[in-house]
Amino acid sequence: MKKVINNPDQVVEEMLEGVVLAHPQYVKRVKGFSVLTRANSPSPKVALVSGGGSGHEPSHGGFVGRGMLDGAVAGAVFTSPTPDQILEAVKAVDGGKGVLLVIKNYTGDILNFEMASEMAASEGIQVENVIVNDDVAVENSTWTTGRRGIAGTVFVHKIAGAKAEAGGTLTEVKLVAEKVIANIRSMGMALAPCTVPAAGKPSFVLAEDEIEIGMGIHGEPGTHREAIRPADEIVTHLMDKILADLPVASGQEVSVIVNGLGGTPIMELYIVNRKVAEILNGKGVKIVKTYVGNYMTSLEMAGFSVSVLKLDSELKDLLLAPAETPAFVQF
Amino acid sequence: MKKVINNPDQVVEEMLEGVVLAHPQYVKRVKGFSVLTRANSPSPKVALVSGGGSGHEPSHGGFVGRGMLDGAVAGAVFTSPTPDQILEAVKAVDGGKGVLLVIKNYTGDILNFEMASEMAASEGIQVENVIVNDDVAVENSTWTTGRRGIAGTVFVHKIAGAKAEAGGTLTEVKLVAEKVIANIRSMGMALAPCTVPAAGKPSFVLAEDEIEIGMGIHGEPGTHREAIRPADEIVTHLMDKILADLPVASGQEVSVIVNGLGGTPIMELYIVNRKVAEILNGKGVKIVKTYVGNYMTSLEMAGFSVSVLKLDSELKDLLLAPAETPAFVQF
């Protein structure tokens, strides 16, 4: 294992310190916890908290800031944060209008976030949860019942965050988050695995010419492995799966995320986007906004995922609203 | 070689198509050329053009937009763009106030950009050049006489771009670009090489526990190879070299880029930033703004570079001015 780290047991702590040192305009640390909040938290609005295992940077701390999250909780690498950590985030960001927890559909995350929300409720904080399950690849998986939550989660942060910023009530923010979740589908592929620092060896192994289709962001098995093919064929396969589950009519407006998994050249992400756009344009779909980059990574995994979000006028306006966070700035 | 591409000979063309399809709000293509300009080019201000070999995405097309570049020219992977391509960019963006070419110090780039600027001058366009040479690692190198230009170039795009946006004359924009260049120093390291698609094999080879210090963004040799060490020791070495060449006094304001080379987990970039900030803070230096991410990559190379820019009040104001481009948004 060759990594730019000091001690495998300290990577999350040192990463969080590095984030706060880089972006004090946006984020601060809750002392003694693996929790980042907005530099000016709490604010008198509905607050959003997300989180999960570390290793998916810039998720989730990179999306803390105006127009997106209020707090992010970082677990150990690929490990759910514990309820006490999540509770601390909720307490730190609650400004009296309630807190929405954005949870990705992994069994550990759901258990811990739900336990934290019960603990918060018992302290008198209004808490609601939504569960993101955008990955169409497989039903049920190593750590999941149902579908996994992957990069489409960033759309939930963005749109529900804009709704909260605009003064939406907790019920309204939860409803719009659920509408986003109902309208996102994602799927990914990997060329090469990643190595969790504390494990010291790759989470899976692929042959020299082999790729994995539909794997999860922790290296969970996908639908199958196959020999490497041209990018356009791979993208066509992923888009077929996505659009089979999320039919789009001509004239439909959408937004797209082409997400790098950490080790993928940006050049390749744009080659992927070329085919994604060609497929959508070919169906008469209007792409309102495309995001290309590393939004929800798997350490240095090589590969990508595509997320498609169907928009209506409410979702479109909230998507295009300003945001200012370490990893997502828009105005 | 396992890559998400269609044809090694088409990667630049397909990447450019993917960029325009992703970001039509910001960029458009000059038909028949590997040139991206602002969607609303030309505009009646001094224009900035940069470029170089492809494979360094988001450099340079990702920085085309309000407050930064007006045009970017993409060569073949790791190969300078030809003079006719550069000339086309200059002609496309000139709004009558002149064009500044921002060139990184590689022999091929300098030859071709200078030839293009002579051709443009002969067509009556006012053109000036600046040459970026921020890499303190080595004097002279595979494709360079003097020092190489690397990720610090992004500071030139940002600050000279802001000066042009504010209505600076060509002379003023060139002068501020030269002031930036005089005040940036950078240095990098690699854990693993990258593979140019058309070559099909890695540009260099490192042993299982070996890293290269001071290599270039095309895999040019650095100062030495050594066994992997803790991140803090590697960063300390790079910062010693940078600050030996760019002395900073207590109270000095700076900006920092921790730049990923394409295959580096974002987590590791933040672990690097933690030590960079600790070293600068320890000297009483004030870090005004830190950028962490993939700004000038080497395809999927694993590693990073650090760039430090000394600020005065003019450079600081221009650095913090708004910008809106595919890969750099600030407001």
Question: Descriptors for this entry?
Answer:
homodimer; Rossmann fold; Hypothetical Protein Tm841, Chain: A,domain 3; six-stranded mixed beta sheet; 24% strand
Structure, explained:
2 copies of one chain form a homodimer. Chain A is an alpha/beta fold and 331 residues long. Chain A folds into 2 domains: 8-182, Rossmann fold (3-Layer(aba) Sandwich), CATH 3.40.50; 186-320, Dihydroxyacetone kinase, domain 2 (Hypothetical Protein Tm841, Chain: A,domain 3), CATH 3.30.1180.20. In chain A, 32% of the residues lie in helices and 24% in strands. The first copy, chain A, has 8 helices and 14 strands. In chain A, the strands form 3 sheets. In chain A, strands 1-2-4-3-5-6 form a 6-stranded mixed β-sheet, sandwiched between helices. A 6-stranded mixed β-sheet of chain A has the order 9-8-7-12-10-11. Chain A has a two-stranded antiparallel ribbon with strand order 13-14. In chain A, a hairpin with a 4-residue loop joins strand 13 and strand 14. Chains A and B meet through helix 1, strand 7, helix 6, helix 7 and strand 11 of A and helix 1, strand 7, helix 6, helix 7 and strand 11 of B.
Q: Approximately how much beta-strand content do the residues of chain A carry?
A: 15-25%
What is the SS-derived class of chain A?
A: alpha/beta
| CATH-level-4 superfamily name of the largest domain in chain A | Dihydroxyacetone kinase, domain 1
Spatial order of strands in the largest sheet of chain A: 1-2-4-3-5-6
Shape of chain A: globular
SSE arrangement of chain A, N to C: HEEEEHEHEHHEEEHEHEEHEE
Q: How far is the N terminus from the C terminus of chain A?
A: 41 Å
Q: So how many helices of chain A? A: 8
Give the C-alpha Rg of chain A: 19 Å
Q: Give the name of the CATH architecture of the largest domain in chain A.
A: 3-Layer(aba) Sandwich
Low-confidence stretches of chain A: none
Oligomeric status of the shown chains? homodimer
Largest interface, C-beta closer than 8 angstroms, per-chain residues: A-B, 69 and 68 residues
CATH topology of the largest domain in chain A: Rossmann fold
- How many structural domains are formed by the residues of chain A? 2
What is the level 1 CATH name of the largest domain in chain A?
A: Alpha Beta
Task: Give the helix proportion of chain A (percent range).
Answer: 25-40%
